[in-house]
Amino acid sequence: MAKPGSAVPGDTVTPASDTAGRSQLLISEALAWEAQDFDEVTRQQTRELVARAQAGDPEADAELAAAFGGRLAFGTAGLRGPIGSGPARMNRVVVSQTSAGFAAYLRDRTARGEARKNPSIVIGYDGRVNSKIFAHDVAEIMAGAGIRTTLLPEAGPTPLTAFAVRYLGASAGVMITASHNPPQDNGYKVYLGDADGGSQIVPPADGEIAAHIDRVAATPVADLPRSRIYTVEGPGLLEAYVSETASALLAGFPKPEGAADAPLAIAYTAMHGVGSAVAQRVFAATSLPSVTSVPEQDQPDGAFPTVSFPNPEEPGALDLAFRTAREINADLVVAHDPDADRLAIALPHSETTGGYRRLTGNELGLLLGWRAAERERVRALAEDREPSGALACTIVSSPALRAVANDYGLDYAETLSGFKWVSRVPGLLFGFEEALGYLTHPEIVRDKDGISASADAIAMARECAATGRTIWDLLDEASLRFGHFASGQVTLRLASMTASTELSERVRQNPPQDFAGIPVEKAQDLLTPGAAEVPANVLRYDLEDGSRVMIRPSGTEPKLKVYIDTFSGEGSLAERREAAETALVRIETAVREYLADAQNSETL
């Protein structure tokens, strides 16, 4: 047995002198950062952290490494991370540097002829901690850099900022939000106008912006010019969003006869976010039923006191919504995430604990996609033409949308994960991702929009009620018309991000030949050049019976994710459901066994 403090074979020992040197270097970097930080809150955080590290607190060393050992990476999703001091955290220095770098990119873009002259930007923010402060920093830096700048007047939903980019004809947009992340996080989301049409950024724009940010970060933040000469937008923008969303919703779907005789009771939660006021204005503009809000969650509160993880997908996140639903005997539960770009719908369900079951993202995506296809059919009939356009979803979402597109003679596209790809599909009519994101009216907003999607969902429920049906009945009708699709996920938690990537690579080098005895008919590696818009670490296996297995490492957590889809189009509704669900269980079991073997064997 090795003596205490001695090395065992295979261990890597870091000399104490190296550890001390690393700690001292981080302390020096932290002090240099503190000297340029103009926010007293984060300056004090840095001082206290340094003092703890100098006193020998090992936890302080770890915190120093996390906050000052690198920089918060800018990517296609912009920035997102914990609020705090240091270059690897969300704070006023990082936001200012990022804004200056983005401004430089916009000027370069204009000089290359890729944007109109005199670049402009619109800035929005949600109700999270520091969102308003960060948004004003963005506005001052952009204005100081000569970018024509418009700041939205108050906290609002992400879809409103995405709308503003198109409505105002801006060159770009920034939304300060961390969407459904934990309370301690915030973020910086970027849109581009002009040829990008108000969509989120995609490569290579992210890399170009990141390079500008790195150059800016090499100079003191105090040297960045700032100006308070910018425009604060008036109420007309919100009125336009409500009006255009209402008009798009009603196109092809007038209020059905009998709807007034079939009122809906609706429970609603904004999840402590910014969706409530805007959503209810849209509902009123479209003569939809009023909602009963969860009182504890209706107003913005960046502390999110009633939920630890404000994501409607998370277990327990809808508990208060279900409580309210039971109190009013609700026919429908509507839930937005804190920035209202995602939507969850739940319905009464006698076999579920609590009396309500949330529709999966794939189930609601199928129904809203069907609705969009029918809207296009009605529009085409009125214009004496054939239906045209595309339905789209991400590659890890259910392929049920393909069946809808085929039935209506529409195009269909599968994109990489993220609405930055979905929104760019030519001729898009509707797009979704299984993680509760829906783009129901791309002519208005080129990003997922939980508000417009919720209005469509409520209208759909009202139409069902007017004919004595429910959304469950509508899902049954979809299974009979398009076939029954079943979807499931397997999430394997691993020790590190590296471990998840290594396991994915092991699968790539030794691909499966079958799952549950069902042969793999086609294997596709999206890292292969040309297989996707950009190479992606995703492995796709199409099985002979029409089922599909997708495997990918998470880009943000130490997990390997597997998405499974099965299908049955034969027999009665009960037979179709039984066949698809049975196949799903069999394949999921086989996937778990396969991955267990992959972890324990170098060669599978």
UniProtKB/TrEMBL annotation:
GO terms for biological process: carbohydrate metabolic process; purine ribonucleoside salvage. Residues 72-215, 258-346, 381-477 form the Alpha-D-phosphohexomutase alpha/beta/alpha domain. One of its GO terms (molecular function) is phosphopentomutase activity. InterPro entries: A-D-PHexomutase_a/b/a-I, A-D-PHexomutase_a/b/a-I/II/III, A-D-PHexomutase_a/b/a-II, A-D-PHexomutase_a/b/a-III, A-D-PHexomutase_C, A-D-PHexomutase_C_sf, A-D-PHexomutase_CS, Alpha-D-phosphohexomutase_SF. Keywords: Isomerase, Magnesium, Metal-binding, Phosphoprotein. This is Phospho-sugar mutase. Belongs to the phosphohexose mutase family. It comes from the Bacteria. Its cofactor is Mg(2+). Pfam families: PGM_PMM_I, PGM_PMM_II, PGM_PMM_III, PGM_PMM_IV. Residues 1-20 are annotated as: Disordered. Residues 529-569 form the Alpha-D-phosphohexomutase C-terminal domain.
